[in-house]
């Protein structure tokens, strides 16, 4: 079925098709319509799930903890301040190995006061043990939610997954989306089986006893192994998905026109589409540029990056977020440390699109020209460039 | 690629109109994307929505800065926003106005106007002009057929009461019928 | 359970038991003649250490911590607390 | 003379009430580990053992951070402290986690008691928001708050239910401060005002009354039931370990902690105090009030009377 839906609605369809048992969510801009869509589906009887209209995000995730321990497949979504209120149960979701799927409709963190897009919320919690997937368009939102359940519930993984979609640029953007058939989704996604941790009077165990350090270290190691397994499992999940639904997303990182590239751009989220357009344009000028769309930010696909960037002269990373303290974009510094001791291209970090600012074709075009200059001079004069603040390199975003 | 910008006030359905346009385009085998301007959608406050339509999948997720088509649901917002900002050469203006508006920039080459308030107030009890203006848009631009607009209304307004749906489709039909097209040659 | 799912999440199965009788510095002693078998000591014992055997109320010294509630609450004055002597 | 009458009354009535409860529960398996590391004379332990006996094996138990968590009810390492499924919610998400469990069991069509045994900190302070939310949403969970009037597990800090003038390590007694300057949060009444199916206060000195209330809570199917259980703490309140029950009884007999229940917000007293004692008799045996002057005791008496009168005006 073809429908015109916004990103929030696409996520709701993805959740519905995955047949969750319990949904708990608290509305927050720009995720609010997602909760409304799901609530409407439940109210109309199209989605048979327990819907818990909680009083806070903290409770939203907490309700899912209880439900998952009782064996439920669960769904929630949040954004920004909601995610930070969730931080306490957020960390615990992964450390209890509960395969919750949660959309983060990414948004800036306060302050200054802002309700607009930016990936600051989601990237800030990157070390809390979840898997994080960032998507480019609404079809990918829907498909990735379904994939997220397969990934989360894989016995080699058993970890919660965030599907991160850019606030407004995806959440409120409507476009054509193919809604998969329920039969196909059922074929792709088997029912959830939780038997390694559960609350059931028929088999009384305790969940989360006080744990001494040695044993805790063991759990941490297992957790990290689960995350590492997720890299391989996700490739298989994506490929399976492609076979059934005809849409394959190239797993953790999608390379675009990288075959003979000397310059590479790295992007995450909705800006990737704009990057495709501008890479094509630059290719018309004869620039050997390609780009890598980072989908799986956590676990960070270090090995794949090393392979894909082998022999590349210059890498530019556009981040819709900042890493306070490392003083660059977050993906930039993660990538930089991943490449350490391997082939190390010249690298520059571009910070753009904060607080709902558009990342325009003009922006991406400017980044590519900047990277060309680095390639010519073989020098990185400035490692971190704030796109809208540095007049000398900023072409007006009106440039088409 | 065709870029359209819709201006209106919160409550007039600018955002919904943008989605309906995309739905109509998709029915015709095209691709489209609709993004609202990200201000607070308060009733009465000026709002914008951006639409892109193309034969190819639209990859860039950006706003519209140089629209070739401008839909103005409420001309009275012009004291609050400059809805002509950044318009392309050969711009087509579709405006809710009882007569040919004066003071239109020269970049505008075609004007379509319709008194959508007069049509919609009896229907809805308030100037909910979005669907009426889309009917006018279909006639003025010829980009999308009225039938596709009607399909778009049914898809995007799904879940609404049948009666409301019918009224909106009717509004689009009347808007289509009553829109006046003027090839604009600049100021007299 | 499959290999992957072995001990991945913190759960407890065997019963956690501390021999709390070791904590005792005083010990309840019961005069069975005086005992009216009202059951007051049994329901109020925090550690659940009082049990009935052959219609006599007894204390499980394995777990009794010697708090003295039984002696205090006994209306028949059948229980007294004595110093715990350990060989 | 009053004391003698009182003793006669005790022998005549309460003794037999104890007997009935004792006969009912003594052969029921204790679902808690026999040896958990509670302090000597712990009031909360009494309440938990009885509650588990009443609810039985078909129960899922939540033990949040606090004394009962700290003593090993959720176990240590690879062990468990209970013979029912037990888990450790966060201090501030107890009611939400319970709600999630109950919803899923409902969905599966399986009946199970989902029970929290939480301290006053997790209930009246940091966990209050989600408890209030769960109450408003009519989540079918059973919530017992064991109120030892402070954060006892972490070493006697003040909580929202710490009474006026009580000493704690964060409301010390000195020249300019004399214990907690504020009155306690009236938690059971706040819960009653949520108009949930069942709210009750209970005391470990009146276990027969407590047991009856537990059974009523178990019967509720259309919403939340909440029991506020008064559990003195010998360690934190500064009294000898054998006086836990006696002090609980005094709190009831002085109207410091009256026993009542509320169905959908309609309040009814469950224990008539025939011979009301002055609150001084309660305060003088609890070490955390040992600094009080006669004037301060008078002031507390007035506050206790006012709170009781207010409750009476609400009761049927």
Can you count the helices of chain B?
Answer: 5
Find the count of extended strands of chain B (DSSP E, 2+ residues): 7
Q: How are strands sequenced across the largest beta sheet of chain A?
A: 3-2-4-5-7-6-13
For the record, the CATH class of the largest domain in chain A is: Alpha Beta
| Number of discrete domains of chain B | 1
What structural class do helix, strand and pairing data of chain A support?
Answer: alpha/beta
Oligomer: heterotetramer
Described by strand count, sense and barrel closure, the largest sheet of chain B is: 7 strands, mixed
CATH architectural category of the largest domain in chain A = 3-Layer(aba) Sandwich
Number of strands of chain A: 16
Q: Tell me, briefly, the overall form of chain A.
A: globular
Approximate shape of chain B: globular
How widely separated are the two ends of chain A?
A: 33 Å
Radius of gyration of chain B: 15 Å
Mean pLDDT of chain A: 96
Kindly report the CATH topology of the largest domain in chain A.
Answer: Rossmann fold
Strand content of chain A: 15-25%
Number of helices of chain A: 13
Explain how this protein is built.
The complex is a heterotetramer of chains A (400), B (188), C (87) and D (316). Chain A folds into 2 domains: 244 residues, Rossmann fold; 134 residues, Rossmann fold (3-Layer(aba) Sandwich). Chain A is 40% helix and 18% strand. Chain A is built from 13 helices and 16 strands. In chain A, strand 15, helix 13 and strand 16 form a beta-alpha-beta unit. Chain A starts with a strand and ends in a 14-residue tail after the last strand. With 188 residues, chain B is of the alpha/beta class. Chain B has a 7-stranded mixed beta sheet with strand order 2-3-1-4-5-6-7, with helices on one face. Chain C has a single domain, classed as Alpha-Beta Plaits, CATH 3.30.70. Chain C is built from 2 helices and 6 strands; from the N terminus they run E-E-E-H-E-E-H-E. The model of chain C has no long low-confidence stretch (mean pLDDT 93). In chain D, strands 3-1-4-5-7-6-8-9 form an 8-stranded mixed beta sheet, with helices on both faces. Chain D starts with a helix and ends with a helix. Chain D is α/β, with parallel strands linked by helices and 316 residues long. Chain D is built from 12 helices and 9 strands. Chain D has one domain: Rossmann fold. In chain D, helix 8 links the parallel strand 6 and strand 7. Chain D is globular, with a radius of gyration of 19 Å. The chains are: A alpha/beta (400), B alpha/beta (188), C alpha+beta (87), D alpha/beta (316). Chains in contact: A-B, A-C, A-D, C-D. Strand 8 of chain A pairs antiparallel with strand 2 of chain B, so a sheet runs across the interface.
Tags for this model:
heterotetramer, A: 400 residues, alpha/beta, Rossmann fold, 2 domains, 6-stranded mixed beta sheet, 16 strands, globular, D: 316 residues, 8-stranded mixed beta sheet, 9 strands
């Amino acid at each position: 079925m073809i429908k015109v839906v916004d990103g929030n609605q696409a996520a709701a369809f993805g959740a519905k098709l995955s047949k969750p048992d319990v949904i708990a969510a608290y509305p927050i801009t720009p995720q609010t319509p997602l909760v409304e869509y799901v609530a409407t589906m439940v109210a109309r009887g199209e989605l048979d799930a327990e819907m818990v209209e909680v009083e806070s995000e903290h409770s939203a995730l907490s309700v899912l903890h209880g439900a998952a321990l009782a064996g439920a497949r669960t769904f929630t979504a949040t954004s920004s301040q909601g995610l930070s209120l969730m931080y306490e149960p957020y960390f615990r979701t992964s450390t209890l190995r509960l395969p919750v799927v949660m959309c983060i409709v990414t948004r800036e963190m306060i302050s200054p006061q802002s309700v607009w897009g930016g990936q600051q919320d989601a990237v800030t919690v990157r070390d809390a043990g979840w898997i994080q997937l960032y998507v480019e368009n609404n079809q990918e939102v829907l498909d990735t939610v379904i994939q997220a359940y397969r990934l989360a519930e894989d016995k080699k993984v058993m970890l919660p997954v965030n599907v991160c979609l850019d606030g407004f640029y995806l959440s409120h953007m409507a476009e054509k989306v193919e809604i998969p058939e329920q039969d196909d989704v059922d074929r792709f996604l088997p029912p959830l089986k939780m038997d390694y941790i559960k609350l059931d009077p028929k088999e009384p165990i305790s969940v989360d006893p006080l744990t001494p350090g040695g044993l805790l270290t063991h759990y941490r190691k297992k957790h990290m192994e689960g995350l590492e397994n997720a890299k391989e499992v996700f490739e298989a999940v994506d490929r399976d998905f492609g076979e059934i639904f005809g849409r394959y997303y190239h797993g953790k990182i999608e390379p675009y026109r990288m075959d003979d590239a000397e310059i590479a751009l790295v992007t995450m989220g909705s800006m990737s589409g704009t990057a495709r357009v501008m890479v094509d344009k630059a290719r018309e000028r004869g620039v050997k540029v390609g780009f890598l769309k980072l989908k799986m930010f956590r676990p960070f696909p270090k090995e794949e990056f090393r392979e894909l960037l082998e022999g590349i002269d210059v890498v530019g990373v556009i981040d819709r977020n900042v890493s306070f303290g490392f003083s660059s974009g977050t993906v930039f510094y993660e990538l930089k440390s991943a490449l350490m001791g391997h082939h190390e291209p010249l690298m520059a970090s571009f910070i753009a699109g904060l607080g709902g600012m558009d990342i325009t074709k003009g922006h991406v075009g400017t980044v590519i020209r900047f990277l060309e200059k680095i390639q010519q001079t073989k020098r990185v004069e400035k490692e971190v460039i704030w796109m809208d603040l540095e007049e000398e390199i900023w072409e007006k975003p009106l440039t088409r | 690629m065709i870029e359209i910008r819709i201006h209106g006030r919160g409550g007039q359905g600018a955002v919904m109109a943008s989605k309906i346009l995309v739905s109509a385009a998709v029915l015709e085998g095209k691709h489209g994307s609709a993004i609202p301007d990200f201000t607070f959608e308060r009733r009465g406050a000026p709002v914008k929505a951006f639409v892109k339509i193309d034969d190819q999948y639209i990859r860039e997720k950006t706003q519209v800065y140089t629209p070739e088509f401008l839909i103005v649901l409420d001309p009275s917002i012009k004291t609050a926003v400059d809805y002509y900002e950044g318009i392309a050469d050969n711009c087509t203006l579709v405006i809710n106005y009882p007569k040919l508006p004066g003071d239109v920039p020269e970049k505008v080459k075609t004007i379509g106007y319709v008194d959508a308030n007069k049509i919609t107030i009896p229907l809805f009890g308030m100037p909910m002009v979005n669907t009426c203006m889309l009917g006018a848009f279909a006639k003025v631009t010829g980009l999308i057929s009225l039938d596709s607009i009607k399909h778009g209304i049914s898809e995007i307004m799904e879940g609404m009461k049948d009666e409301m749906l019918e009224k909106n489709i009717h509004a689009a039909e009347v808007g289509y019928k009553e829109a006046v097209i003027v090839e604009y040659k600049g100021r007299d | 359970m499959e290999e992957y799912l072995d001990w991945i999440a913190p759960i407890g199965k065997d019963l956690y038991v501390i021999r709390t009788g070791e904590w005792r510095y005083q010990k309840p002693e019961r005069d069975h003649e005086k005992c009216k078998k009202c059951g007051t000591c049994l329901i109020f014992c925090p550690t659940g250490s009082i049990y009935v055997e052959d219609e006599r109320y007894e204390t499980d010294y394995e777990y009794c911590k010697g708090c003295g509630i039984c002696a205090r609450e006994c209306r028949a004055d059948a229980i007294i607390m004595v110093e715990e002597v350990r060989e | 003379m009053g004391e003698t009458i009182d003793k006669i009354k005790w022998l005549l009535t309460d003794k037999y009430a104890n007997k009935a409860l004792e006969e009912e529960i003594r052969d029921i398996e204790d679902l808690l580990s026999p040896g958990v590391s509670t302090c000597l004379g712990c009031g909360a332990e009494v309440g938990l053992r009885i509650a588990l006996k009443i609810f039985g094996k078909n129960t899922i138990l939540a033990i949040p951070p606090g004394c009962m968590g700290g003593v090993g009810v959720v176990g240590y390492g690879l062990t468990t402290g209970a013979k029912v499924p037990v888990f450790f919610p966060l201090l501030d998400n107890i009611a939400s986690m319970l709600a999630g469990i109950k919803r899923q069991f409902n969905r599966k069509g399986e009946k199970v008691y989902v029970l929290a045994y939480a301290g006053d900190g997790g209930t009246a302070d940091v966990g209050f928001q989600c408890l209030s939310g769960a109450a408003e949403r009519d989540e079918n969970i059973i919530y017992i708050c064991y109120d030892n009037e402070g954060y006892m597990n972490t070493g006697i800090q003040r909580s929202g239910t710490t009474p006026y003038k009580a000493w704690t390590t964060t409301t010390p007694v000195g020249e300019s401060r004399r214990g907690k300057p504020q009155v306690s949060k009236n938690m059971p009444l706040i819960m009653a005002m949520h108009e949930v199916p069942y709210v009750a206060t209970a005391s470990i000195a009146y276990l027969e009354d407590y047991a009856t209330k537990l059974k009523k809570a178990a019967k509720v199917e259309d919403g939340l039931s909440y029991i506020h259980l008064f559990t003195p703490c010998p360690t934190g309140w500064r009294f000898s370990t054998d006086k836990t029950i006696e002090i609980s009884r005094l709190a009831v007999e002085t109207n410091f902690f009256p026993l009542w229940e509320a169905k959908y917000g309609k309040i009814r007293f469950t224990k008539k105090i025939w011979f009301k004692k002055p609150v001084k008799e309660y305060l003088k045996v609890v070490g955390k009030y040992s600094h009080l002057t006669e004037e301060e005791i008078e002031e507390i008496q007035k506050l206790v009377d006012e709170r009781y009168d207010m409750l009476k005006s609400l009761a049927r």
